């Protein structure tokens, strides 16, 4: 299985509709992408059969994901889309400084809040969103610098340096994969990534592929 770490957003999604909502984690075999909406909570009243707090289905179009559901499913998505470019610009300028100083998550959140020109909305858990952004881009920065994966918790949170583990776990290694009866027919399991190694929580991403309909099923599961 060929794995590409941290593909760009435009390599994964057909439009920028999900920019600031979904994070591209890695790509396997050129067109199957592990993604995550960590950082935003779900609004159950907008849940649909194919877009719930547990799963989402994407249409695969020219090797990229096409989103066909309701964005209101993601609480605070409008505010997230507004502040995401600000956060990304700041990290591009200051990311290396944060790394050198091993800037704590709490200090980063306190500092970056001052640069946000928009009033915070009630429906977003801002600190959770900022923590998720920071851990993702910090991990990505370290990986791009020296190839070390999942180092945020070691560098910033002071956890013991973990033993090396696979980025993507194969089907035979997926101990906590959702039970078969919950998966729609014709979806073949691809693998699983551990959310804790990309972020700071245990929201894992399980990927399934329906070759007949050219659709992707992404299922969240917590350790």
Short description:
The protein is an alpha+beta fold and 223 residues long.
Q: Report the count of strand segments.
A: 8
Topology pattern, helix = H, strand = E: EHEEEEHHHHEHEE
- Characterize the biggest β-sheet: 5 strands, antiparallel
User: How many domains make up the 3D coordinates?
Assistant: 1
Instruction: Tell me the number of helical segments per DSSP (H or I, 4 or more residues long).
Output: 6
Radius of gyration, taken over Cα atoms and rounded to an integer in Å:
17 Å
- Share of residues in helices: 25-40%
What is the topology, as strand order, of the major beta sheet? Answer: 5-4-8-7-6
Mean of the pLDDT scores?
A: 88
Name the beta content range.
Answer: 15-25%
Unreliable segments of 5+ consecutive residues: none
The span between the termini is 24 Å
Structure class? alpha+beta
Q: What does the overall shape look like?
A: globular
Report on the structure:
- This protein is α+β, with helices and mostly antiparallel strands and 223 residues long.
- The chain has one domain (1-223).
- It is built from six helices and eight strands.
- The strands form two sheets. Strands 5-4-8-7-6 form a five-stranded antiparallel sheet. Strands 1-2-3 form a three-stranded antiparallel sheet, with no helix packed on it.
- Strand 4 and strand 5 (64-66) form a beta hairpin.
- Helix 2 packs across helix 4.
- The longest helix has 25 residues, at 77-101.
- The model has no long low-confidence stretch (mean pLDDT 88).
